[in-house]
Amino acid sequence: MEALGVDPAALAGMGTTRTGLRMHTTPPSTKYKPVDYPPNAVMQRASSPPNPTLPRKPNKGIRTSKALGETLKGRAGKYGELIGKNGGHYCGEILAGRPHGNGQYFVPAGPSARNYRLQYDGEWIQGRREGHGIRYYHTNEVYTGDFVNNERHGYGRMDYRNGDSYEGQWWSGHKRGLGTYYYSNGDFFVGYFMHDKKEGLGTLYMVQRGKKMVGEWVSDKCATSSIMFIEEGELSPLDDNLVETIEMSMPESGPDMERREFPKLDLKQPNKLLARQFAGIRKMREADNKAQREAQQQSGTMGYADIEMLRLSFVLMAGGDEVEMGVLTHQLRELCVMAGLDPAQERTPELVADLVRQKRANGRIHLDDFLKIAAHYRDHSTAEVSIPDEW
Questions:
Q1: Where do the H-state alpha helices sit in the chain?
Q2: How many whole angstroms separate alpha carbon 252 and alpha carbon 215?
Q3: 226, 275 in Cβ contact below 8 A?
Q4: CA–CA distance, 120 with 99 (Å, rounded to integer)
Q5: Reduced to 3 states, what is the DSSP secondary structure of residue 291?
Q6: How far apart are CA 93 and CA 101, in angstroms?
Q7: Model pTM?
Q8: Residues 306-365: tens digit of each pLDDT
Q9: What domains are there in the chain, each with its CATH number?
């Protein structure tokens, strides 16, 4: 140790001992006190994303009134006015010479700049419409809902000038996702939309006739469907929140009102045929272009493979697909696992609960009722509009 320039006495003073050629030092845990962490409030503030102050530099093409010069030098939340080259006029909160916060944007109502009309009233972020707001169009149409990057995106309602309206999910300015389209004559459609068109499983409620059409839609057209009466107290398999609307809008029944019955079918298992048609359309959609595949995946309905595996598992467990064949309620969970459904997913117990309600007096669930639920099932948790990563 002396050859290395280290004093053995100094090492002894530092709590170091020598045994043969190995050195033993005092463990750090016995030399230092435990670390005292900051309070939770400090830790949360440190882990939150940064919120930097924007540079106070106005955008190109925006000039401000001289009387508002001092206002534009303030922080977010200061009120002011901005005037654009195209004649637009903004009144509201300003940050760094741009709309930021709540504000209103006015545009010229005509060729002359004397009269203005309100175009947007709502939230802004760094000069863009973002958050919740109301957009007034020159065609007398009004949108109320969420905005992202100046586009209708999220959840909102659009009132059209012909009296129709749509309420539901939007994606980059287009109807996309689950929604309800209300017609001016009182009818309404509940289902999935893709690029402003009906796509996938949906129900058209013909209120004045007291009937509904449940079917599979492709590019705004119904490819296959079944028409049924809207019964009092009925729960649609597509939406549980429209029962009160249906009952209030249905025509009142009276002694003078004629109720035309549908012609009776000789099919013993009509839902078996309908489920096969639904599965075939979804199979074609999954094999189509990328947009169609995304529509099928995000609609929340079961694809061709899921419906076919459920049918085969039912036949295997029940011992056949005849009318009298059925399974017991306690076999449903095992049947779903046999079909390849993940029991940990939220949709599996929901599907089992819907199937249990189809139990007949003999305590069994028959294939026709089983396939009806499987073809009309929709997982609402999958149909959510998210914000694109590039935004």
A1: 8-13, 28-31, 40-47, 243-249, 270-286, 290-298, 304-318, 332-338, 347-356, 367-376
A2: 26
A3: no
A4: 12
A5: helix
A6: 5
A7: 0.68
A8: 999 999 999 999 999 998 899 999 999 999 999 999 988 888 999 999 999 999 988 999
A9: 62-249 (2.20.110.10), 270-382 (no CATH)
